[in-house]
Amino acid sequence: MRWLQGGPFLELSFIFNEPTKIEKVITNLNNTNIKIEVHNSPEYIQQFYEGYLFDENDPQSVMIHRVEINLTVKTTRQRRALLFVEKISSGLLSFSMCFFGSEYNAPEWNQTGIRDDELDEFIRLLISLYKELKFSVGGLAFEEDMKGLFDVNEAWPNEKYNFANLNFKDNLHKFRLF
Questions:
Q1: Rounded CA separation 90/80 (Å)
Q2: Which superkingdom does the taxonomy of this entry point to (predicted)?
Q3: CA gyration radius for the chain?
């Protein structure tokens, strides 16, 4: 069984300027007022730095740096989450913490839903993460992460993913920003 399945997903995401060490971010997750457990080994997380070729048959292909980390987040109710860490350009890292976002529980997948009255918990989590991590921009949305704010029609990594290409005006309606 996959760690997180079904949908929709509530995505709590934020972007850092590089150089940011994933291990430091993960360590600082534990300094928030919400308990977050990481279920992957440090060796697994190191795979991010090694990366992999976008096209393994083309040694000149772009290198992808991405890792998917299993988390347990203990808000009022315990939840599974996935933390996607992606290098979207030479200067930016994207972190997206995804939660099962249906209003209904899915016991067959061991997933806890999110009731309307629980959304404030995720806003408080985002604020707590900001206070601890000092990321550049962060937000909360259903089925959207912070990469959706960029006016870029390119696959990442791409140098067009830079703060000059953030488009709040046309995309802000999708997010609760912090």
A1: 30
A2: Bacteria
A3: 16
